[in-house]
Amino acid sequence: MMPTCPLCASADTAFYHRDARREYHRCRRCTLVFVPPAFRLDPQAERAVYDQHENSPDDPGYRRFLSRLFEPLKARLEPGARGLDFGAGPGPTLSVMFEEAGHRMAIYDPFYAPDASVLEQSYDFITATEVVEHLFAPGKELARLASLLRPGGWLGLMTKRVTDHATFTRWHYILDPTHVSFFGEATFRWLADELGMSIEFPAADVVLLHKRPS
């Protein structure tokens, strides 16, 4: 029996690839490539991987990396916009960059900043950099983030995208055991339609989703 897609909940999925550690399946409806539940890490093992990250706002290289999302999103925001950095990780940096640009920021991370009260508020923009590939339930989580946006708000995502099967089988991105959901451009276009949002691709690994003004 094929696993259900964690993005669109379709049962129309098929085997896509297998490596030495796990399997990958692909949804025929939304085209998400995903790791079935049996091959996911438990929370303790997942946290252990994240604890090895050494990201910091004092690292110019990390700031340059985040600028691929920061710059195009900043250009679309009104002065003093309120934002949420979802999945901020052990060294929140993007939130610092937006605060330096005059925006008010909240952060959330299930391991490092687990204050769920910030997920009950509304925002002009939400960012999730190198986050969606870690989500076990991306459909539920992304719909929740979209619901927190005010009319006219922006959801900025940063993740490397699936291109084709041959490239996927050689892709370094799938070697990280915490990466379980892999989006292609078609997947993001499906998501935008599902959420009723417009979509832009300002860089190879950046996606901007725009909620319609009321």
TrEMBL record:
One of its GO terms (biological process) is methylation. It comes from the Bacteria. InterPro entries: SAM-dependent_MTases_sf (IPR029063). GO terms for molecular function: methyltransferase activity. Keywords: Methyltransferase, Transferase. SUPFAM superfamilies: S-adenosyl-L-methionine-dependent methyltransferases (SSF53335). Coiled coil: none annotated. This is Methyltransferase domain-containing protein. It comes from Halomonas alimentaria.
